[in-house]
Specification:
This protein is an all-alpha fold. It has two domains: 56 residues, no CATH class; 63 residues, no CATH class. The chain is 43% helix and 0% strand. It starts with 13 loop residues before the first helix and ends with a helix. This is Aminotransferase-like plant mobile domain-containing protein.
Length: 122
């Protein structure tokens, strides 16, 4: 179940259960907009905070890492992926490939913009 907290993290909104139920039955959802909105909201709260030491903002940046890894194919795939759950395929310790500066530049230069639509459904 995915929860993008707004302020307090001690409760789950009722709408989350409906989406979780639909996802459990195979319906696909795009998390790009809510994840980016949550990140922007968190960044705004950080930038306007008067005390950064007491700032307890949560950013779902792991989704961004997942999208980047999927887009640039920078993760190794697990040997036995769970059917239907795409993020699980790359979830494990040290699953990211390592690149030096030259390899990273080559990776960014060979971006295929036609694959972007697939990333929205991760």
């Amino acid at each position: 179940m995915f929860v993008l907290p707004n302020k307090k993290v001690d409760c789950i909104r009722a709408s989350v259960f409906k989406v979780a139920s639909l996802m459990a039955h195979g319906e696909l959802f795009s998390f790009a907009v809510p994840v980016l909105a949550s990140i922007y909201c968190g960044l705004k709260a950080i930038s306007t905070s008067s005390n950064l030491g007491a700032c307890d903002i949560l950013l779902p940046i792991h989704y961004v890492y997942g999208w980047i890894g999927e887009y640039f194919e920078t993760y190794y795939r697990v040997s036995h992926p769970q059917r239907g759950v795409q993020m699980w395929q790359i979830s494990a310790e040290k699953m990211a490939k390592h690149f030096d500066l030259v390899d990273a530049r080559k990776l960014f230069q060979q971006v295929n913009v036609h694959n972007l639509h697939n990333l929205a459904m991760l």
